[in-house]
Amino acid sequence: MSRRAPSADRRAPAVALPRLLWIPATAAFALVALPVAGLLLRADWPRMPELLTSEAALDALRLSLVTAAIATLLCIVLGGPLAVVLARGHLPGLRVLRSVVLLPLVLPPVVGGLALLFLLGRTGLVGRQLDLWFGITIPFTTTAVVLAQTFVALPFLVVSLEGALRTAGGRYEAVAATLGATPGYAFRHVTVPLVLPGLASGSVLAFARSLGEFGATTAFAGSLQGTTRTLPLLVYLERETDVDGAVALSLLLVAVAVVVVGAGRSRVTQGLS
Amino acid sequence: MSSPLDPAAGLDAAVVVHRPGFALDVELTVAPGDVLAILGPNGAGKSTLLDVLAGLLRPDAGHVRLGDRTLAGPGVHVPPHRRGVGLLAQQHLLFPHLSALANVAFGPRAQGASRRAALARARELLDAVDAGSLADRRPGQLSGGQQQRVALARALAAEPGLLLLDEPLAALDVDATPAMRALLRRTIRGSTVRDGDRTSVLVTHSALDALVLADRVIVLVAGRAVEEGPVREVLARPRSPFAARIAGLDLVPGTACPGGLRTADGLVVAGHAEAVDDGEPAVAVFPPAAVAVFAERPHGSPRNVVPVRLAAVEPHGDLVRLRAGVRDGGPAWAEGLAADVTPAALVDLPVEPGAELWFAVKATEVAIHPAGRRP
Predict the structure, then answer these.
(1) Any domain includes B373
(2) pLDDT at A214
(3) For A181, which of B89, B110, B160 is closest by C-beta distance?
(4) Position B255 pLDDT exceeds 70
(5) I need a surface site. Which of A230, B93, B282, B356 has the fewest CB within 10 A?
(6) Residue B170 or A177, more confident
(7) B86 lies in which domain range?
(8) Same structural domain for residues B238 and B350?
(9) Residues A148, A116: contact at Cβ < 8 Å?
(10) Nearest CA in chain B to A174
(11) What is the DSSP string of A225-248?
């Protein structure tokens, strides 16, 4: 199954590419790759272990991994069903609903953070009631970090899963029904396995987006060590005082991102065929 | 869960569906264990009809009754998973993430059978469709014919009270078609697979499929039944242009015998057998263009020869079609036989209605197919 792609690639280039394409393509690649290479060159490698094992760094790394994992889980649990409704549901106004869901993709994250604050802040529409009735305060807690990350990452999962659901179509579910499968049984044993590759790639994207989240987190959760100061926030902070530390943490983020995307990619390409 | 279904439940349906620019309005009944073929051109509403029977589409009016259960009617719409109506489509639609065995076990599992019982049943059915050795393969690793076999086993494993076959042979290449047709025949008509006869509705483009697999046929054109009756009758004497175009075959009923087919009056029509056993009800099939016409009884090369009385002469494209009637002392099955001859060949023949002629067809042009019920 994974063999198919490379063999197709080998057959494909029968027609030469227009040469002019190579210039902007090279420039685009350089724009992405060179800054990361610059980080590698700029890094203070001998002090690296010390920089990465500082208490602040370890706190931030732990917090980032935990919150991004929870946010990804929330995206799957909440965004998965939303994607199914968007792809298969028959509702008036589904288009409007879809554009609203995609809003975090185009919204500046800091605006999203402010919006969350005005909704869930202590004087906010919902936040006031939570505070009055249950004594729950969300802003500037780890919960706020998770909510901010879920907010920005949700569309990534919804978009890739909805695409997978549309591609799969509803024909297999129809066959399952004629075999006596209830809609729930068909969903668990046919729909979910069929869209698993789409779910996996969506989850990877959502996790990566959560891990890198900065704007909404600063606005909604602040920057308290061990509670809300995730890796990107720590990088931003260290940049002022300890450039070497900031570079080291940046490389850590790059490494985590590479691992996540690499793992996700192999999962996706190994998918069902 | 669906209740245990009587495999020999009859179908009684009246289906009305209105769509912009299209209307389906057809009534059909299928006796328990019978197979009804639905012939019709593209866009006639055949697939829409099957969707309504399967419960995938709500009719605008009418009813669907299977045995004593009402599946659809005023205020009633039993969802597809509680109908016990199986579907074998042109595309096999095997679940790509499951092995052949797991695909076949899907129905029993979904209906609550234990894993062990479902797998045992699946193995049994895979063996029954000659796909036992493919149990562990994924659908992507199977040929088109193998995929369709497994899909048939999967549909049967769910023990449907009604089996819908939507052009099950159309997507197969020519090499795989005869074997699959024979398998379908013994599955829905024969006794090799448990439960024996199965009430079925077969949608097809092919007169041969209808002849081999079905008892009765409905010809559907533009959403309406234009012709209906026993397959052999409709195909031998088509009244609608569509049926005539797809049929256009000479048919002689009888039972298969060594070297050909024995008619009711004891005559033997020589031909080559296509997946038919001696003694089985069969039909000899040959194209009218293969029939040579003589004024005197021909001698020489090995041919089937039958005396007829000319009933009608009609133009048929560039050819002329001669319709036969029964001659005094001649076989009764000559009634309706057609011979297509060139206008030049008519010069030497008496062509006034009532003329006495001989129809001759070479044994190599005659195919003997199974048809009708086993005795």
Answers:
(1) yes
(2) 93
(3) B110
(4) yes
(5) B356
(6) A177
(7) 11-246
(8) no
(9) yes
(10) B56
(11) TTTT--HHHHHHHHHHH-HHHHHH
Q: How far apart are CA B11 and CA B68, in angstroms?
A: 9
In a domain, B374, yes or no: yes
Q: What is the pLDDT of residue A156?
A: 93
> Cα separations (Å) of B174 from A21, A201, B145, B186, B360?
47, 41, 10, 20, 29
**Distance (Å) from the alpha carbon of B141 to chain A's nearest alpha carbon:** 10
Domain final residue, candidates B215, B231, B246? B246
For CA atoms B119, B124, B127, B129, the dihedral sign is negative
Residues B263 and B373 in one domain: yes
With the C-alpha atoms ordered B121, B125, B130, B134, is the resulting torsion angle positive or negative?
A: negative
Averaged pLDDT for residues A181-206: 92
Res A76: pLDDT: 96
Chain B residue with CA closest to A190: the answer is B95
B7 backbone dihedrals φ, ψ, rounded to 5°: -65, -15
Residue B94 is predicted with a pLDDT of 95
CATH topology of domain A53-269: MetI-like fold (1.10.3720)
Going by pLDDT thresholds of 50, 70 and 90, the confidence category of residue A267 is: low
pLDDT tens-digit map of B274-306:
777 888 888 888 888 889 898 888 876 667 889
Neighbours of B302 (CB within 10 A): 9
The residue among B366 and B189 whose pLDDT is bigger is B366
Contact A178 B110 (CB under 8 A): no
Structure tokens at B38: 């639905």
Based on the domain organization, do B230 and B257 belong to the same domain? no
Residue B18 forms beta bridges with which residues? B23
Shortest Cα distance, chain A CAs vs residue B151, angstroms: 10
Q: What is the mean pLDDT of residues B22-33?
A: 91
Q: Which residues of B touch A185 (CB under 8 A)?
A: 110
User: Is the CB of A178 less than 8 angstroms away from the CB of B81?
Assistant: yes
What's the rounded mean pLDDT across residues B171-185? Answer: 83
**What count of residues does chain B have?**
375
Six-digit token pair at A124?
């906010």
- Tell me if A272 and B97 make a contact (CB, 8 A cut-off): yes
Do B206 and B292 lie in a common domain? no
Interchain proximity A177–B89, CB inside 8 Å: no
One domain, residues B48 and B193? yes
Q: Do B81 and A194 lie within an 8 Å CB cutoff?
A: no
- pLDDT of B23 strictly over 80: yes
Q: What is the pLDDT of residues A13-39, one digit of tens each?
A: 578 888 899 999 999 999 999 999 999
Nearest CA in chain B to A186: B110
Does B158 contact A186 at a Cβ distance shorter than 8 Å? no
CATH of residue B266's domain is 2.40.50.100
Nearest to A190 among B1, B55, B95 (CB): B95
B262/B183 same-domain check: no
**What is the residue-wise DSSP string for B93-129?**
---TTS-HHHHHHHHHHHTT--HHHHHHHHHHHHHHT
Mutation choice for B interface testing from A4, A172, A175 by most B CBs within 10 A: A175
Looking at B191-195, B212-216, B267-271, which range is the least confident one? B191-195
Hey, are the CB atoms on A194 and B83 less than 8 Å from each other?
Answer: no
Instruction: Count the domains in chain B.
Output: 2
Domain boundary among B191, B217, B246: B246
